[in-house]
Amino acid sequence: MTDISSMLGIIEQQEPDFAQHVVTRREAIAKGAKVSAALGAAMALGSVPVALAAFSKEAYGQSTAATVQDVLNFALMLEIFENEFYKAVLGTSSVAAQNNAFAPVRALAIAAGAQPVLAQISKHEVAHVAFLQANGAVNVLNLGASSFDFTGARGAGNGPFAPATTNLGFLLATSQGAEDTGVRAYKGQAGNLMSNTTVLEAALRIHSVEARHASKIRRLRRATGATAVKYSGTVSGGGAAAAGAGNLNPPQAIVDAFNLIYAGDDNVTHAGVNVTSLSYSSVSGFPSGTDLATAATEAFDEALTKDQVRAIVQPFFIPTIP
Amino acid sequence: MTDADGSDGRELVIGSAEQLWQPSSRRNFLRLLGLGGTVVMLPSLFACNSDDNSVTGTGTATAVTLNLSNDTGILNYAFALEQLEAAFYTAVVASSAFSGMSAEQKEVMVDLRNHEVIHREFFRQVLGSARVGDLALNSSTVTTITANTATILKTAEMFEDLGVAAYNGAGKYLTDSANLLVAGKIVSVEARHAAAIRDLREGLSLSGTPAGTRFAGDDVVNASGLDVKLEPSGVLTRVAATNVIDMTKTSVSIGTQPTTKPGTDDQGPPSPTP
C-alpha cells in the first residue's frame, strides 16, 4: 500500500503552501490528535486518493481561518444589507427614496397578505444588526440606508433586480435569494468561530433563523405560482434551478445571480460520504420510486465562502466590499 | 473504525415480544418503526433485559449511552435524534391519517421523511462501528400520535424545533471543523422543516402567534433574533417526556457530559399548543 508520507512528499514539491499546512496536520496526527471521521474512515479503507482529498480539504479549511472579529464584521455587513432591504420594502427606511422605490410592490404585498411575513423577518434583521453591534462587530464600511442599490447596479438604479420593486413574484424571489445567501454565508464562517464558542453558538442561532425565513419565503412563493419550489421550504438541486424562479421567466442577469447564490448546492457528498449511494434498500420506509437524487440535495444545505458571498452581494452595495 | 473507548460494533436482530405483538404484523411493525431489522450494539454498552428475549432469542434491550466528550459522541447524539425523526415520519407516511392529508401536507411529510432518513443513514455510514445502537420506538405512543393529522403536525413541530435547538446547542462541542460544517448543513434543513411545519399549523387557525409569523414566531426567536438552543441534557429530557422512544428497550442517556465550553443561555422551544 502506498505510504501517505511519500504521497505528501510529492505534493510538497508541487504545492509548497498546501504541503506546509498538511505537514502541520500530519504532525498533529502523529502526536495523537483526533482525526475526523471521514478522514479516519478513508485511511482505514486504505484509499489514498480519498484520504488525500479529505486531507487537503481539512488542511485548507483550517489554514484560511479569518479571525472572529473578521467574521463578526462580515456578518454585520450582510445583516445591514438585509435589514435595509426589508426596511425599504416595508417603507420604514430612513431614506425616502428607498421607501418610494418599493411603494408599488409594497401595496401588492399587503394585498397578498405577505406584509406580516416580511415584517417578522425585518424585525429579526433589525435584532441581528443590534445584537452583532452589541457584541463587538464593526460597521467597517459605514453602511447605512443609502449605501445600497437594491436593483443590483451599484448606484445606477437600473439593475436586473428592478422588477422586485413592482412585481411581488420578483420581490419574493429576491428575498429568498438574500435569505439563502445568509444561510450559506453563516454556514461558511462557522469554522472560523470555533475559538470563541459563545460567538459560534450565537452565529448558529442566527443561521437557523435565516433558514426559517428562507423556508417561509419559499412556501409563500409556492402558494403563488412558483411550482418548482417545495412546501417543505428546502432547496432542491443547485445553480439557478435551485431558485425555482422559472415561473418568473427571469432575465439572464438574474439567472446569473441565482447561479452564484445556489452554486454547488446540489452537492451530495459530505464528510466523504455520497448520500445517494448509501444502502437504503435495507431501510423500510424509504420506498423505491423515491426521488433520492433530489431529496439528497434537499437534505443538506451547502456553505459559501466569503469570496462567493462577496461576489453575490457586491452589485447591491455602492461601496466596494473589501 | 473503533470508538474512542475501543469498542467494536456487531449486528443483531432487534425484537421482543412486546414490540412484535402490538402491531398487527411483523411487516407492519417494521414499516412502522422504520427499522431495517438489524441493530448494532456496542458490547460495552450491552445490557440484557431478561423479559425481552423470549421470541427470537436474539433480540434484547440495548442501552444507548452517549459519551459527549468527543466528536464521535456528539455525532452519535445527532444520529440518535435523526433516528427518532426518521422513524417518526416513516410511521406518519405509513399511517391511515396520512391518506387523509391535503396534497401540501403529504408533500411536506414525504419530504421530511426522505430528508430525515437520509440524515440517519448518513450518520450510520460516517460513524461506522462507532455508532450507537438503533432506537426502538414506543409503538403505542406512535400509534396514538399518528391517529390524526393534528397530532402528527403538532408532534412534528415539537421534533423539528427540538432538532434545531439540539444542533444549535451541540455545535460548540465539535472540535473538528469538518464535523461542524456537516452539522451546519443539517441544522439549516431542520430549521426549514420547523418553519414549514409551523406555517402549516398556522394554516390550521391556531391561536397564539400573530398571522404570518408562526414560521419564526416570537415563541422560538428571541428579542435578539436568536433561535432556540438547548444543551444535550435538556434535549434528552424533552425526548424522554414524549414517550416516543421505548425506554424499556433502548434507554437513551448521557454517560459522559460534554467538556464545558462557553456558550449562550438555554432557550428551549415551547410545548406546541394547542
Task: Summarize this structure as a short list of keywords or feature phrases.
heterodimer, A: 322 residues, mainly alpha, 2 domains, two-stranded antiparallel sheet, 1% strand, globular, disordered N terminus, B: 274 residues, Ferritin, two-stranded antiparallel ribbon, two-stranded parallel ribbon, 9 helices, 48% helix
**Count of helices of chain B?**
9
CATH architectural designation of chain B: Up-down Bundle
Helix proportion of chain A: 55-70%
> What's the structural domain tally of chain A?
2
How many helices of chain A? The count is 13
Radius of gyration of CA atoms of chain B, rounded to a whole number: 18 Å
Summarize the structure in words.
The complex is a heterodimer of chains A (322) and B (274). Chain A has 322 residues and is mainly α. Chain A folds into 2 domains: 4-63, no CATH class; 80-265 and 301-316, no CATH class. Chain A is 57% helix and 1% strand. In chain A, helix 2 (16-30) crosses helix 4 (48-63) and helix 9 (168-189) packs antiparallel against helix 10 (197-223). The longest helix of chain A has 27 residues, at 197-223. The N and C termini of chain A lie far apart (47 Å). Chain B has one domain (10-256): Ferritin. Chain B has helices at residues 17-21, 26-33, 71-94, 96-99, 103-127, 139-145, 149-170, 177-202, 232-242, and strands at 10-12, 39-41, 64-67, 252-256. Chain B starts with 9 loop residues before the first strand and ends in an 18-residue tail after the last strand. Mean pLDDT of chain B is 81; it is low at 1-60. Chains A and B meet through helix 3, helix 4, helix 8, helix 9 and helix 10 of A and helix 3, helix 5, helix 7 and helix 8 of B.
